[in-house]
């Protein structure tokens, strides 16, 4: 989902769904397999049921 300078990605990792934003200039394309590395200083994790922040 392009949004100016960033792209919002909707990813599936096993049974988990992940939403991430990346720089639009990365060239990621819809349906493409990606290797994802998390920068824990910029990562926010939420419980899917309660929507409470867990990290």
Low-confidence stretches: none
The biggest sheet, with number of strands, parallel, antiparallel or mixed sense and barrel status, is: 3 strands, antiparallel
Q: What portion of the residues fall into strands of 2 or more residues?
A: 25-35%
For the terminal residues, how far apart are their CA atoms? 25 Å
Number of domains: 1
Which structural class should the secondary elements be placed in?
Answer: mainly beta
User: Quick check: average pLDDT?
Assistant: 86
SSE topology string: EEE
Tell me which oligomeric state these chains represent.
single chain
How many alpha or pi helices? Answer: 0
Silhouette: globular
**How is the largest sheet built, in terms of strand order?**
1-2-3
Helix content: under 10%
| Radius of gyration over all CA atoms, rounded | 12 Å
Number of strands: 3
What's the SSE blueprint?
Blueprint: E1 2-3, E2 6-13, E3 16-23
Antiparallel strand pairs: 1-2, 2-3
Describe the model.
By secondary structure, the protein is an all-beta fold. The protein has one domain (about 1-40). It contains no helices and 3 strands. It has a 3-stranded antiparallel beta sheet, with no helix packed on it. Strand 2 (about 5-15) and strand 3 (about 15-25) form a beta hairpin. About 0% of the residues are buried.
